[in-house]
Amino acid sequence: MIEKEIAELRRRYTKEKSNITRIYGCFVNENKEIISELDQSLGLLSEDDADNILKVLRKTLSGNIGRNLIEIGFSTEQVASSEEYRLLSSLRNSELKDKEEINKLYESIISSYEYDGNYLILLAHDKYDVYSYSADGEKGESGETFSYMICCVCPVASGRMALSYHVPGNCFRTVSADTVISQPAFGFMFPAFENGGANVYGALYYTKDLANSHDEVAQKLFCSELPMPAKEQKSTFSTVLRETMDEDCSMKIVRSVYSQVNRMIEEHKEQKCEEPLTMSRDDAAGMLRYCGVPEERVEAFETKFDSEFGENTEINPKNLSEPRMQVKTPEVTIKVNPGCSELVETRIIDGVRYILVRADRDVEVNGVNIEI
């Protein structure tokens, strides 16, 4: 999927545009027990309540591909004969009207999701009439109807006690809110939406936490291994770089590598490429060669990259990028704005290691301009 297609679906999650008519779900307590089930007509809800539910579901389609959004692929064998694929197809084809199949999905999620508190599982089915557009942007006729299901799992927290002013009684009083539904921890859409139609060999998985993708749930639902979480990709890349560069791991090298990563992201944005941006092992190795890193170090990096990420694995450069360069010692942290990294350098003077910051403009200490 491309982000343009995801945005196309996401824009539909309002009461006026969506074809979602019913919301299904269940409330699960901390003992992994279903204590209530939901089968609610969206049309009978107030406009505010309906929009709030759709906003929760829409969150399952938010974020960037390769970060919060992960593409799931099914093999031909899975599509032909696997139980996990049969269940998803049955749910979609029945438009969530098969109670027995819904219960199987609940059981799969509850048995695999490791969470100590209460949570809500929400399900909905939608049909999207996909229209064609002429070269001048004029809307044509509907060419295909995309039928899909969406599911999300939302932690539920107890409302906090709060002090309120009661106007009719002209007095203060303490009130408590009911349970509050949090944003989805994870969710998925099936099937994937590609080229204006359904890709029955794919699904789109969402995770809120970039450090924890809830692999155990994905394994249960899709029998599929998720890629390394976004935050783990960043820390792993840093480790691979450090361990293979050894004494060649200088500020100059690290600064150059991350500058090239940021440049790759900017160029992709400027070119308005629809396909998700990825970075291969060879791309990363090319960055090191550009920095003048010795070939034996580059080869060691390639070997370690394959070992940690897997052969032929591509990662999202956005998972490695930071908005500002950061230089840290145990006592000092220096944050540098984009495009200004050249102001910072390292140097050894009289045997002592220093981090030098060029100060061509005003310098403040605790808000006071000082002279150097």
Structure in words:
The protein is of the alpha+beta class and 372 residues long. The chain folds into three domains: 3-222, no CATH class; 228-322, no CATH class; 324-372, no CATH class. It contains ten helices and 18 strands. The strands form six sheets. Strands 1, 2, 3, 4, 5, 8, 9 and 12 form an eight-stranded antiparallel β-sheet that branches. A two-stranded antiparallel ribbon has the order 6-7. Strands 10-11 form a two-stranded antiparallel sheet. Strand 10 and strand 11 form a beta hairpin. Helix 5 (99-112) packs antiparallel against helix 6 (215-222) and helix 9 packs antiparallel against helix 10. It is globular, with a radius of gyration of 26 Å.
Alpha-beta classification = alpha+beta
Tell me the total number of β-strands. Answer: 18
**Which stretches of 5+ consecutive residues score pLDDT under 50?**
none
Mean pLDDT: 91
Number of helices: 10
> In percent, how much strand structure appears in the residues?
25-35%
- Biggest β-sheet description: 8 strands, antiparallel
Features of the shown structure:
single chain, 372 residues, alpha+beta, 8-stranded antiparallel sheet, two-stranded antiparallel sheet, 18 strands
